[in-house]
Design brief:
This protein is an alpha+beta fold. It has helices at about 10-60, 250-260, 270-280; strands at about 75, 95-105, 115-125, 140-145, 175, 185, 195-200, 200-210, 240-250, 280-290.
Amino acid sequence: MKTKNNFTLVELIAAMGVFSLIMLMVMTMFLSVQTIWKKSSQESQVFENARIALDLMARDLQCAYYEVNKTPFWFKPDTSGIAAYKVAADIQYKNPALCFISDTLVPPNPYCESKMCEIKYQLYGTTYDIINANDGWLLRSATGDKKADGSDNLYNAAATPTGTLKFYNFYKVRVRGGTPAAQVFTLDTGSSDVWEQVIPYVTSMTFECNRRDGSAVAGYAPASTTTSYTPTKTLSPFPFSVRFTLTLLDSDSWNKWRAMAKAGTATAEPAAAVTFRQQRERKFSKTVLLGERGQAK
């Protein structure tokens, strides 16, 4: 006669305990793998964002337009130390910017009959104590001969009734404000189409423009943000080469840093936020050789 062996309560509890330990180990391993995967994905996205931005800027610059008697090129250096750029309305314009004319591969809309466009790049100037929609975004503006609805892009209907780009007739710069006929390059949308967001989580962007002899171009920084200027070729020449550098954070680090930075003032980043940011930033650079185009030494 067979004897039926039943589990005792102690054996059942022990088995359940072992099963629970195994499940805990599996869940811990799964969560660890998920965390590693998420971090790896964020790191990969940083490199991918940098590649997209650097390639786009390089292609636009390689196709930059140049005239012997005009210099349709404006390099605005960092102006965070100038009083005019510390007021609330103009903090967004404090970072370096690059404005030029290019036979771009990425026009603003499919209606453009010519790929010759006014191209502008800038990093939106962060106000540390207030979060804005453009914080951390590399911005690009492309303005062609047609608007998004297919109509002529008339900068000045009286002078250019066929939609010819205004840079053929003028060369002035202005940070913001004014009428479209008053200047070529602006950092607002006074004489151009809207700014488009390219890549996020950018903490800094710099440009190094050099002449043919290797000397640096200081760039032209308007002392006033609402006055039109006509820079000389000495201050803002067409460069022989341009090196641009981007510094980025991954999305998690960006969100944590931005929350820490809110404890600062409009123009002052808290020390703790500075340390946190510097420990997690990644820097990417690329140099574009524009070459000999008749520039002055």
